[in-house]
Amino acid sequence: MARILGIGIATLDIINLVDRYPAEDEEVRACGQQIRRGGNATNSLVVLSQLGHQCSWGGVLATDSHSGQIIQDLNGHGIDLSGCRRVADGITPVSYIALSRSNGSRTIVHYRDLPEFGYQDFAAIDCGPFDWVHFEGRNVPETARMLAGLREQGFARQRISLELEKPRPGIEALMKDAGVILISRAFALSQGLESPETMLDWAQPRAPAAVLVCTWGERGAWYRSGRDQAHVAATPIGQALDTVGAGDTFNAGLIDACLRQLPWTEALGHANELAARKCVRHGFDGLAV
């Protein structure tokens, strides 16, 4: 068992299951609805907890009723919340998700009115006992200070992971202090890069000491470390039911594999399998059993 700290956000996800994604200005009836906790970092921590790790979350919690649902869920998965900041004047972020029953795709409208987790919040956490620290790539100036602070304390780069999911101004500045960089297809496309190979070509000069991993949905995952590189095909799944959090599950699987020091092709295969398992079930409970 390893001790893992994840820095990022938690949300309340309101998921409407529809037969197909509606056209603009069309009204459709949902054939099901789920309300559950979401957020990239917390999703990954819940999966890592199921894999046997001791997980802590650093993030911001409001004091509204929605935050109670998030706290209850994370407590139920054994996630330590002592590093969180709680604010009385914010609103829990909510993601409104249309989940298509025809192909498992999800379309998200996200609303937030809550401060970001900052460097001073992070500095209050003793990172010495942790075996791994994982960051969502957001709140770039403050996250840069967190990463630099870790490195100044002598925290090994190879025990720091950074997720690049969405484009944000200056986000490439975060890459130099992370040892494992997890890049989504959406991020690659936002940079005008239409293949995982070109994404890795773009990333390598910006983080020459890092292991770079790029996921590409049904095409699988690629990694590159120096001149060493490989591609591992996606695990076949048949009909996808729920792709919400599949990328977060992949990230958890890869972190777990890194902590177990698996060879990189095995690590990608392990992460692909977990992500595939997520796509054929609703939610995260029982995912890693």
Protein architecture, described:
The chain is of the alpha/beta class and 289 residues long. It has one domain (3-22, 31-279): Ribokinase (UDP-N-acetylmuramoyl-L-alanine:D-glutamate ligase). It has helices at 40-50, 65-76, 119-123, 140-152, 185-190, 196-203, 246-259, 264-279, and strands spanning 3-7, 11-18, 32-38, 54-58, 60-62, 85-87, 91-100, 106-113, 132-136, 160-164, 180-183, 211-215, 221-225, 228-232. Strands 4-1-9-10-11-12-13-14 form an 8-stranded mixed beta sheet, sandwiched between helices. A 4-stranded mixed beta sheet has the order 3-2-7-8. Strand 5, helix 2 (65-76) and strand 6 (85-87) form a beta-alpha-beta unit. It is globular, with a radius of gyration of 18 Å. The relative contact order is 0.14. The model has no long low-confidence stretch (mean pLDDT 94).
List the helices and strands and how they pair.
Blueprint: E1 3-7, E2 11-18, E3 32-38, H1 40-50, E4 54-58, E5 60-62, H2 65-76, E6 85-87, E7 91-100, E8 106-113, H3 119-123, E9 132-136, H4 140-152, E10 160-164, E11 180-183, H5 185-190, H6 196-203, E12 211-215, E13 221-225, E14 228-232, H7 246-259, H8 264-279
Parallel strand pairs: 1-4, 1-9, 2-7, 5-6, 9-10, 10-11, 11-12
Antiparallel strand pairs: 2-3, 7-8, 12-13, 13-14
Helix pairs in contact: 1-7, 7-8
